[in-house]
Design goal:
CATH class of the largest domain: Alpha Beta
Helix content: 40-55%
CATH architecture of the largest domain: Alpha-Beta Complex
Strand order of the largest sheet: 1-2-3-5-4
Shape: globular
Oligomer: single chain
Radius of gyration: 21 Å
Low-confidence stretches: none
Distance between the termini: 44 Å
Structural class: alpha+beta
Strand content: 15-25%
Length: about 350
């Protein structure tokens, strides 16, 4: 992470060759960006700009790429999600260089400590000839196994470490900023229960009050968990990429946070695999994850505890029933909702959360 006094652009107009020279110079001495040309812009939770850069000889000696992405929060809603940009900068500055997971390379990441404003300069994965995940293209058992190996390395790195609080409260902004429950309110949950995909969901979750209670129960259990770690936080198919040989990787670290390990594992497996294939292989895949975790020197949860936590964490994915099409394509929302609704039924998530409580 750079000095907290390093100036970060507060407007997109400030992202010019001079600022890029100063930012890249923090890690790559002598580099000068002579010209910058902006291409594709992606305006969503954050702001991403694809850039074509021309360097001096030092830039070429450092083997800096001709294209990269500038990422930060320059949207109308950005002041409300500053923590997500700060967490992403923390991941790229401190965790990505360790090589625990397949993630985009980062050339600069910083946070202004006073404002919480964070920006990154990130690898353009198109140069790797990477393809990008999509819920309509389920991942295979082989790809899921590879991804679980990566998650086990990430989770083991700071397993139950005292300094996890640097990542904020357990559950991150998913629990603390109220966004999950907010999009479920005002009749949205009840309306979603009339959709065909809701037919697979147990009636125990058909009211907003029941769904809210399930989410709150899950977060309370996570706060009390004895198996907390760093998690990606949002490992759905849209945040995956794949190398030309099929090796998966993880994008978009804005929800990087501390939580129970099963937040990642359950959300990834159920949300990324075909529902029938997931049902057929999830026990073996969870067992594989536990072995991979143990191989990293971690005292992994027992099978019974792990399976219970996996079943409980299917709850979080029910939010797909009410994700608006302005955030994700309607077809993707329906497919994800169907996968999680079916999982909550087969895993008896309601009993896992409230049985014996």
């Amino acid at each position: 992470m750079t000095s907290p006094h390093f100036h970060l652009p507060r407007t997109l107009e400030e992202v010019d060759a001079a600022w890029l020279t100063a930012a890249l110079g923090q890690r790559f001495p002598g580099v000068e960006v002579r010209t910058v040309t902006f291409g594709t812009a992606v305006r969503a939770t954050g702001t991403k700009l694809r850039m074509l850069l021309e360097y001096n000889d030092a830039g070429h000696r450092h083997r800096l790429p001709a294209t990269m992405w500038f990422k930060g929060g320059y949207e109308a809603h950005s002041d409300h999600v500053r923590t997500s940009h700060a967490r992403e900068s923390l991941f790229y500055a401190e965790i990505e260089p360790l090589g625990l997971v397949n993630a985009p390379k980062c050339y600069f990441a910083s946070v202004d400590d006073d404002s919480g404003f964070g920006v990154q300069l990130i690898e353009d994965l198109l140069v790797r000839n990477a393809s990008f995940g999509d819920a309509r293209k389920p991942v295979s058992v082989a790809a899921a196994t590879n991804a679980l190996n990566q998650l086990a390395r990430l989770h083991a790195h700071r397993w139950n470490a005292p300094d996890l609080d640097r990542l904020g409260e357990v559950g991150g902004s998913l629990a603390t900023d109220g966004i999950v429950l907010r999009i479920m309110r005002d009749g949205a949950w009840e309306r979603s229960m009339t959709a065909p995909v809701a037919a697979a969901l147990p009636e125990a979750f058909h009211t907003y009050a029941a769904a809210e209670a399930g989410m709150e129960r899950l977060w309370a259990l996570d706060r009390a968990s004895q198996h907390r770690c760093m998690v990606h936080g949002d490992a759905h198919p849209g945040n995956l990429f794949f190398e030309h040989d099929g090796t998966p990787g993880f994008l978009d670290w804005q929800r990087f946070m501390q939580s129970d390990w099963a937040h990642d594992v359950s959300y990834f497996l159920i949300g990324s695999m075909d529902a029938d294939e997931c049902a057929a292989h999830e026990r073996d895949l969870v067992a594989h994850y536990l072995k991979a975790l143990s191989a990293q020197g971690v005292a992994a949860p027992s099978w019974d505890d792990a399976w219970l936590s996996y079943r409980r964490h299917a709850m979080y994915g029910l939010v797909w029933n009410v994700v608006p099409p302005t955030m994700q394509p309607a077809e993707v929302c329906e497919m994800e909702a169907l996968r999680f609704n079916a999982a909550v039924l087969r895993l008896d998530t309601h009993d896992a959360l409230f049985g014996g409580a």
